[in-house]
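Q: Got a minute? One more chain.
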Amino acid sequence: MYESHGTQIGTSEWATRWVISLTTPLYTLRMRTQIDVEMRVFARRMPEYHNTFMAGVLFDLIATLDPADPWRNTYIDDSLNVRVPGGEMFGMWMNAADMTFAVNSDTSVDLGLSPLADPLSGDSTMLFHLASTKGWRAASAWLTNRPSNAENGQDPFELAEDAIRWALFRRASYAIEGDGFFAVTSGAWLNRVTKVVAGEPYDESRMLRLRYSASVEEGTYERLIGTKSPE
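A: Always. Here it is, folded:
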């Protein structure tokens, strides 16, 4: 691991701070800015580690949603746009309106939907789609092979973080009591990423157990949107 800008804090520590920053709004602006800088350095200096970590966390978050959730069932149209079942383009706040109702005509100040006020970029939606439908290996490989001059000048960290934010938002829509899965799976991926990159064996069964124990119960999505009566 590298020494960051004049500090002795290594990559895993900055990644841990990044995880915390996505779950609490109480970090100072200085700390949030520094975390952003260090995660971009991580992506640039150690791309394979960064891409594996981000793709793994993204996959785990999506894989724990209800199997019927449209966000788990995206597809690519003939123009290479990512869409949800029914044909709506994925990456817009309207995708969340099935579970999170808008109460303000200006989404940027809507308490429930403001995190999605800025649409996802095409690259972020593609990463989300690949993680959801092909798995973390495909998502990591796509992130690694993506041209450096790709859409909107987004670097791998920014586009992956945006996809993860949306996955976190969707998981939060299920209002899972005491949900700490994001921190747990992020820590697990930080511990296994070196083995994954080196091609060494790692505890896949633990990874499966973590996802299974944190998964939304099948049928929850339909009950929440009112299309299925409780058993």
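A: Residues 1-8 have pLDDT under 50 and may be disordered.
Q: Perfect, thanks.
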